[in-house]
Design brief:
alpha+beta, Heat Shock Protein 90, Ribosomal Protein S5, domain 2, Ribosomal Protein S8, Chain: A, domain 1, 3 domains, 8-stranded mixed β-sheet, 5-stranded mixed β-sheet, globular
Length: 597
């Protein structure tokens, strides 16, 4: 009987391993950047073409590799980071499994140039699908350059599952952010399709955050610092008033490694309790330093999940540290040197009560007593004139009987009322509609905006004072995709370098919401901005509809309720909101009667 079990060929085993480690171009970026950091580089360059599908290249000035090490680096489980199993609990480096380069080489064309300080020339190695194509000498400076081309060229099924270039680029930028924020002591450059997105010089942590997300972030951060025998915590929390509805600005680093921890995130959220508006999430950039022996980072191929030995104690320390910092921020007095001191109340009058001035009334005064005119007869005083208005009450608005109940027509409207400041109830002959006012308004706005973008250009209204916004490279990249949609809506925007000037907005657009809407469009997360939308026009229409729709809890008078209802039933789609949520339910008369029996 022949054996049924056989060993897989190395190239097949590598492709299977690659499926766990390399999921998309961003996975390659993560692995190569972390290798460059481990090589003690002080300057790292990332070069991307077509969102990494065509090229991912990382160039560093680190230690480099010898010819022998270069060849071994692409073998499975070949690593310089650990020698025995105990080393897993004393890790200070990013990579350690020895799987990343072997996995990458199994599913792409890889060209590596590397040179150590001792070598006079660099060494070049070319691999395609785990097979060495060429090994030779080259002329490169000290350090390592790894170019990964044609990712997933031999696994078309995996390549077909990649998202659009915009989505994949956003994932690449996210991974780039996680590395550069962990290592502000290193200079990073990021080139996308020949243009420079980021040039981040070595700096302090706060300055690095501002360089990545925009200079205005420096005024939005509260320092957090705590040192105990269990852990040292440093970093920043975002002031509560700048919290966002998305979770984009939440960064945990443990021993300079980015991690995801719902448990620790809950600790920070607990510290913000009572300070955030409903639906908003805290932002933070927190760096934890712990003994490597007290954590296990070898529980997931991506190494972003960490298990802590003293989890409960760490939770309490983190929550207390953040809460203490927020408390200092809330009560700390500030000096306003631009305050107009002429409006200050003198100390001598601080505790005095205001006394109303005396009023003298002359009851005998009559303005009509001696008034004469050459063109009109004199007006005589009527002794009863003071009593003409006695007993007259404030005129009441006469009540208007509502129209007879009927179906929705142009000439007649049903009686409607608001329930719980959240729903619009519309009684009909045989049933009752209960409509979610927020979702209904989102649907109305979404269809209006989408129509303006795709069919006709909206009317623009000039702003009295243009609004100035500073954009980070990621926002500038996003603007290039939605620029046409914003122009069709009626926005007049000029962008020069990293400055945006908003000179006009759609007619009747609330001026107070312009900045928030634009920032929401430019700072949307990758999941919100592309994967959940059909097009850039769809994305813009949905984001604006969400931002401008009335909120749950908003009180509407009868006219506003009716106007909302009329606009809603004029929509092409009335069953679900732009975000695929049910807008209304129907309560049948028979259903109500059954509940009352």
């Amino acid at each position: 009987m022949s054996a049924k079990i056989s060993l897989l060929p190395d190239h097949v085993a590598n492709q299977i391993a690659a499926g766990e480690v390399i999921q998309r171009p961003a996975s390659v970026v993560k692995e190569l950047l972390e290798n460059a950091v481990d090589a003690q580089a002080t300057h790292i360059q990332l070069v991307i073409k077509n969102a990494g599908k065509t090229l991912v290249q990382v160039i560093d000035n680190g230690q480099g590799m010898s010819n022998t090490d270069l060849r071994l680096a692409f073998e499975r489980h070949a690593t310089s980071k650990i020698n025995v199993a105990e080393d897993l609990f004393a890790l200070t480096t990013k990579g350690f499994r020895g799987e990343a380069l072997a996995s990458i080489a199994a599913i792409a064309h890889v060209e590596t140039h590397t040179r150590t300080e001792e070598d006079e020339v660099s060494h070049c190695l070319k691999i395609e699908g785990s097979k060495v194509i060429d090994q030779s000498l080259s002329t490169q400076p000290q350090g390592t350059s790894i170019a990964v081309k044609s990712l997933f060229y031999n696994i078309p099924a995996r390549r077909n599952f990649l998202k659009s270039d915009q989505v994949e680029l956003r994932h690449v930028i996210d991974e780039f952010h996680r590395v550069v924020l962990a290592h502000p002591e290193i200079r990073f450059q990021f080139f996308n399709n020949g243009s420079e997105l980021f040039d981040l010089p070595l700096s302090a942590v706060k300055k690095r955050i501002a360089s990545v997300f925009g200079n205005k972030w420096e005024t939005q951060l509260v320092p957090v610092e705590e040192k105990t025998s269990l852990a040292e915590i440093k970093g920043f929390a975002v002031k509560p008033e700048f919290a966002k509805k998305t979770r984009g600005q939440q960064f945990f680093f443990v021993n300079n490694r980015f991690i995801k921890s719902p448990f620790l995130n809950h600790a920070v959220s607990a510290a913000f309790e009572g300070l955030l508006r409903p639906g908003y999430h805290p932002g933070y950039f927190l760096y934890l330093t712990v003994d490597p022996k007290t954590i296990d980072i070898n529980i997931h191929p991506t190494k972003t999940e960490v298990k802590f030995e003293e989890e409960q104690n760490l939770y309490a320390i983190l929550r207390a540290a953040v809460k203490h910092s927020l408390g200092i921020f809330q009560v700390m007095p500030t000096l306003d040197f631009e305050q107009n001191t002429s409006m200050d109340v003198p100390y001598a009058f601080k505790d005095k009560q205001a006394v109303p001035p005396p009023i003298e009334i002359d009851s005998s005064f009559n303005p009509f007593a001696n008034e004469t005119s050459s063109r009109a007869p004199s007006i005589k005083k009527d002794p009863q004139w003071e009593g003409l208005y006695s007993g007259l009450q404030e005129e009441e608005i006469p009540s208007v009987s509502p129209p007879q109940e009927s179906l929705l027509t142009v000439s007649e409207s049903p009686k409607v009322f608001q329930l719980f400041a959240k729903y619009i109830v519309c009684p009909l002959k045989t049933h009752m509609l209960v409509i979610d006012q927020v979702r209904a308004h989102q649907r109305i706005l979404y269809e209006r905006f989408l129509s303006a973008i795709t069919h006709k250009k909206g009317v623009s209204q000039q702003l009295l004072f243009p609004m100035e916004l500073e954009l980070n490279p990621q926002q500038l990249e996003q603007y290039t995709h939605i620029e046409g949609a914003l122009e069709m809506l009626g926005f007049q925007i000029v962008v020069e370098k990293n400055k945006m000037s908003i000179k006009g907005a759609p007619d009747h657009f609330p001026t107070s919401k312009i900045e928030n809407v634009i920032e929401s469009l430019l700072s949307a997360s990758s999941e919100e901005s592309s994967e959940a939308h059909f097009s850039h026009a769809d994305q813009v229409a949905k984001t604006m509809a969400r931002s401008l729709a009335i909120k749950s809890g908003a009180l509407l008078d009868s006219r506003e309720q009716q106007a909302l209802l009329d606009d809603f039933f004029g929509c092409k789609e009335t069953t679900v909101s732009p975000f695929n949520r049910q807008i209304f339910i129907t309560l049948e008369k028979t259903e109500i009667e059954q509940k009352l029996n």
